[in-house]
Amino acid sequence: MEIRIEEDAAAVARAGAELVARAAREAIAARGAFHFAVSGGRTPWEMMRELVGEDIAWDKVHVFQVDERIAPEGDPDRNMTHLRASLLAYVRIPPGNVHAMPVERDDPEAAAADYARTLAEVVGSPPVLDLVHLGLGPDGHTASLVPGDAVLEVTDRDVAVTSSVYQGRRRMTLTYPVLERAREVMWLVDGAAKAEMLARLVAGDETIPAGRVHAVHATAIVDTLAASQLRQS
Fold first, then answer.
1. Cα–Cα distance for residue pair 92/194, rounded to 1 Å
2. pTM for this model (two decimals)
3. DSSP assignment of 145-181
4. 38, 48, 186, 230: least buried by Cβ within 10 Å?
């Protein structure tokens, strides 16, 4: 894993936008499209606002979700609500290229299977995403691969639903197999609360969910607070 240390969360967001723009241009030049999966969070939304100003052929971009809370459309808990407000309202991505997780459906398991089929139809079977953006929680979770949940053991599906409620919501999430097939993974991590888990992630600690993501090409863009225990070690 390549580690890039930036001064603060704002610098992490800017560096993340630059990496996404570079990956988009390379994918479009090589394969005619850019398949990008995004996670939620305050710094990622700032990254999306930075991304608006980048020179990208937006009509060739496909946006997928890494995870989503099971909540009504437009709910402030939904990652898609914030993605629309920070990026999609400002760039010309065709509506058909925005692939929202269908979490408002009555049957979450069937909805997860449908989303897996969408991935395969758009990206190929098995789907290989060009870039996956991941975050890191203070408890070591990433995506909605949360500690102690049965979803951590799903290896036969690319999309699954958490078995329990986590922070007030059940979640739909991409699973380890599709994350690990990605051509590139970008971690965005900021804040002192993430320092211990970042050190464990970099050390390959598989006792935390994030440490079980074995990406071939991964870059962690982190701020000085999150990197504090990396320097100590």
1. 34
2. 0.94
3. B-TT-GGGG--S-SEEE-SS-BTTB-EEEE-HHHHHH
4. 230
| Nearest to 55, CA basis, from 29, 75, 84, 80 | 29
Strand partners, 134: 187
Nearest to 188 by CA among 140, 220, 214: 220
Compute the distance between CA of residue 106 and CA of residue 42 in angstroms, rounded to an integer. 29
DSSP 8-state secondary structure symbol assigned to residue 86: I
Element (H, E) at 4: strand 2-6
Taking 90 as the threshold, does the pLDDT of residue 190 lie above it? yes
H-helix or E-strand containing 188?
strand 185-189
Strands 131-134 and 34-38: parallel
- How far, CA to CA in Å, does 64 sit from each of 147, 193, 194? 23, 28, 25
Residue 229, H or E segment: helix 228-232
- pLDDT recorded at residue 195: 96
CA atoms of 102 and 68, how far apart (whole Å): 9
How far is residue 187's CA from residue 142's CA, in Å, rounded to a whole number? 9
Q: How far is CA 188 from the centre of its chain?
A: 9
Q: What is the pLDDT of residues 206-223, one digit of tens each?
A: 999 999 999 889 999 999
Tokens coding 143: 């995506």
Residue 11 · residue 190 · CB < 8 Å: no
